[in-house]
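Quick look at the format.
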Amino acid sequence: MTAWLSFLVVFLCSWSLRDLVVEACTCVPIHPQDAFCNSDIVIRAKVVGKKLMKDGPFGTMRYTVKQMKMYRGFQIMPHVQYIYTEASESLCGVKLEVNKYQYLITGRVYEGKVYTGLCNWYEKWDRLTLSQRKGLNHRYPLGCGCKIRPCYYLPCFATSKNECIWTDMLSNFGHSGYQAKHYACIQRVEGYCSWYRGWAPPDKTIINATDP
């Protein structure tokens, strides 16, 4: 009986640990603009190789990338050759395909290395909307002084002039919502921020209160 109980305890502990690891990666939804503004590095790149590095309990995956364009991070690292991520998806590791797609990749720099993960914004380039691509080039940098506040339950109100209320949470999740795909929160005259959409470059001299 003692041996059976010992086996049962070990089994339950192992199962609980495995379950904990699988569910360990939980990310808070973030608008693409915030993902851009909060990242050290934002690039468009193609993965041309990968190598499993013996770092940590599960290892670290090192992706070799061919950088197509840099949108943020010139002063920190003008050219990115490697992207590092956890090898395990349960620890928020990103799985990128080699020699298939161009990706938008955001990440942070630590000790001279660029790290990314499931909680960063990464996407196949051809899946980005035209508004998101324009945001990377022009609009998102104009809004880094703004605050995008998620709205999970109605009613939601801005508490300061530099806030934009993000309502995608009411019907969608994360980057898949309409605001995330088509809007940027732009800083206007006197520090006011408001949502912007359209094809022409935004006029920073006026307040555009157009709400999605």
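Next, a different chain entirely:
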Amino acid sequence: KLFFTDYGNAAKVERCDMDGMNRTWIVDSKIEQPTALALDLINKYVYWLDIYLESVEVVDYQGRRRQTITKGRQIRHLCGLAVFENYLYTVNSDNLSILRINRYNGTDVQALARLDNAKEIRVFQKRTQAAVRSHACEGDPYGMPGGCSHICLLSSSYKARTCRCRTGFILGSDGRSCK
């Protein structure tokens, strides 16, 4: 799945399949300007910052069990969001500090370090990486991902895929080659 935020005409947090199909709103009320998003892949939670409402909130992948983690004026200066173990990590753009926030109570907030011009944060750790299994976009004997001549996108499951073409090309009638 692909998770993303939008604060155009109607602010929301959404999800869809990697090929853009099955687009679903998971948060569409009491939300104004969601600017950063992080996933807890193990427990299947979505965290986001709303800088207009000055809050950090969480829901499950279906948009249920919504909770506010923390609220306050300091939120409007946050950008980027990552989750690892018991904490959320974010960047305070006002003083360029990396913050650690307890994701269960929101009160334990610590500044960890300062970085010049930081706008985004990611945590890379072996336990946060999903195990790779055989999937529909694996290279075929000719090296083409999922048998697609240009781009292979996973669909509704790891066993299904959709082929797409680079800009300027159209998908052929075989659903795999680009012309």
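Residues 2-128 form a domain with the Neuraminidase fold (CATH 2.120.10.30).

See the schema section for token definitions.
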